[in-house]
Design goal:
It is a single chain. This protein is an all-beta fold. The chain has one domain: Peptidase G1 (Jelly Rolls, Sandwich). It is 2% helix and 55% strand. The chain has one helix and 21 strands. It has an 18-stranded mixed sheet that branches. It has a three-stranded antiparallel sheet with strand order 2-15-16, with no helix packed on it. The relative contact order is 0.28.
Length: 234
């Protein structure tokens, strides 16, 4: 199955050069069991077909340690049980104790595209994915605080449109696996919709992130289109 997802991410990269960006991925969900994944925390609606998803959040203030770590937040279609995702959101990258925020769009398994627009902690952002057909998508990221809008049209063959997500993710680095989850405190999602309706209307699956015996991040209860994801462990 494919799912649309909006993600805000903070991940560790060497730099934001195109080559380095292609090494960092916002992957489909690495499931452990129903309700638990190694890399996603948030809510995923199943069933579809989903032709739109949208969510709004405040870019988190990330605490970076001495090692690489990352966190991603996005909205998207597909990815919870499928090998493809159509997603857009932000990346907060930790390296040597410093954090850099950027927007990104990813038509997984294609490499992500870094959005060359300024993003800072505290910015109010809205991510939207619209399926024009099963192969054509319009993805938009709005930074209300900075006053810019980025829109791109992308293609993906054979999208199932079977799920819609608003997710916080621990990104994956090629050759290194899933990164430690940077300490983002909490991310608050609001106005989250799928097919123009509040996400809660679809009875979405709550997803807890857990890996190596530790709970990494947990979602709060969803109400309409609002919920939070709380950091627990790197």
């Amino acid at each position: 199955m494919k799912r649309f997802a909006v993600v805000v991410a903070s991940a560790a990269l060497l730099t934001f050069t195109p080559a380095a960006a292609s090494a960092v991925r916002a992957d489909p969900a690495h499931r452990i069991r129903f309700g638990t994944t190694k890399n996603w925390a948030g809510y995923a609606a199943h069933g579809g077909p989903f032709t739109s998803v949208s969510t709004t959040w405040t870019e988190p203030s990330v605490t970076c340690g001495s090692t690489r770590s990352g966190v991603a937040s996005f909205a998207g279609i597909d990815g919870a049980g499928s090998p493809t995702v159509e997603q857009i959101g932000t990346l907060a990258m930790c390296r040597q104790g410093k954090v850099t925020h950027r927007g990104f769009v990813e038509m997984y398994p294609k490499a992500p595209i870094i959005i060359r627009k300024p993003v800072s902690a505290g910015d109010s952002l809205t991510a939207t994915v619209v399926a024009n057909s099963s192969t054509s998508f319009t993805l938009t990221l709005v930074d209300h605080t900075k006053g810019w809008t980025y829109t791109t049209n992308q293609t993906s063959s054979g999208a199932a449109l079977a799920s819609a997500e608003a997710i916080t993710e621990a990104p994956t680095v090629r050759g290194s696996g899933i990164l430690p989850l940077a300490n983002f405190g909490s991310i608050n999602y609001s106005g989250t919709t799928a097919n123009g309706q509040p996400l809660a209307n679809f009875g979405p699956e709550p997803l807890t992130m857990a890996n190596n015996g530790s709970t990494k991040a947990v979602p709060t209860q969803i109400s309409g289109g609002s919920f939070s994801v709380l950091w627990q462990h790197a």
